[in-house]
Amino acid sequence: MLINLTTIVALLASASAVIAAPAPAHEDSDIAARDTQSTWLTMHNNYRAQHGAKALTWNSTLASYAQTHANKCVFKHSGGKYGENLAAGVGYDDAALFKQWTDESSSYSSSNPTASHFTQVVWKSSTQLGCYKASCADGTIFTGYGKSDYVVCEYSPAGNVIGQFAANVQK
């Protein structure tokens, strides 16, 4: 079988085009969703372990709820039935956004407990987590800084229940 140089070049060109083709958008979003799940679940569970709380499990319904709210790019609680933490920033990685919540531990007093992001993160009765990180256009959350990351995490059952702090928050 004779193959001429033009055929070889054409075959190589089409093969490299297939290899270099970008992944479909849904695959990129699936990868981003898996990364968000792994990152946020790991950060929560590592931190909860330091405060005597059991590991959370991922809940896709909570993640979908978080996604719907985050994609609105309005920095305001959803008012839903779940516990909820919000974080936003420009140029921060996930760990820095999460740290915004956990840094509130220094303000927590068991003698005068108040609800905070920290208390929701470590709330012992919460067993499920779903988070989503949206990229929001300049002017939606912050103005003049470019795109911002907006993270919404939902918790079930909801934490920060008045009268239950002593049983659910271990500093």
Helix count from the secondary structure assignment: 6
- Oligomer state equals single chain
Unreliable stretches (pLDDT < 50, length at least 5) are 1-29
CATH fold naming: Pathogenesis-related Protein p14a
Q: What's the number of structural domains?
A: 1
Write down the Rg.
22 Å
Mean pLDDT: 85
CATH class: Alpha Beta
What's the name of the CATH homologous superfamily?
CAP
Strand order of the largest sheet: 1-3-4-2
Query: SS-based structural class?
Result: alpha+beta
* Helical percentage: 40-55%
Main pleated sheet = 4 strands, mixed
Give a written overview of the molecule.
The structure is a single chain. With 171 residues, the chain is an alpha+beta fold. The chain has six helices and four strands. The protein has helices spanning 5-20, 25-49, 60-70, 94-102, 117-122, 165-168; strands at 57-58, 83-89, 128-136, 148-156. A four-stranded mixed beta sheet has the order 1-3-4-2. Helix 2 runs parallel beside helix 4 (94-102).
Topology record:
Layout: H1 5-20, H2 25-49, E1 57-58, H3 60-70, E2 83-89, H4 94-102, H5 117-122, E3 128-136, E4 148-156, H6 165-168
Helix pairs in contact: 2-4
Characteristics:
171 residues, alpha+beta, Pathogenesis-related Protein p14a, four-stranded mixed sheet, 6 helices, 4 strands, 42% helix, globular, SCP domain-containing protein
